Amino acid sequence: MQKCDGHPYNPIIFETRDDKNLKKILSSNNEEFIEYIHKLGLSLEHTDSTINFEYTSTTILTLKTRCFKVDFNDNFVRISPLK
Q1: For residue 64, what are the CA distances in angstroms to 7, 38, 71?
Q2: pLDDT tens digits, residue range 49-60?
Q3: Which residues, in sequence order, are bridge partners of residue 13?
Q4: What pTM was computed for the model?
């Protein structure tokens, strides 16, 4: 791990109800978090082909490397990318 430098911007906030497990919080809010990450930047590649009546399809979702600041409070968690 490396220390990330930068200033937090454009945070997303999730209610936690005293839960400090980030994985569980993101899992329970996965659609909203994926949409948030999408707005920050990601690459989506899709290919498909049909050869000898066999259809194949591949979708690759690549997230840009980015550091985040995560602040826990009693009632919410704030996740902010660093710029």
Answers
A1: 17, 10, 21
A2: 999 999 999 999
A3: 78
A4: 0.69
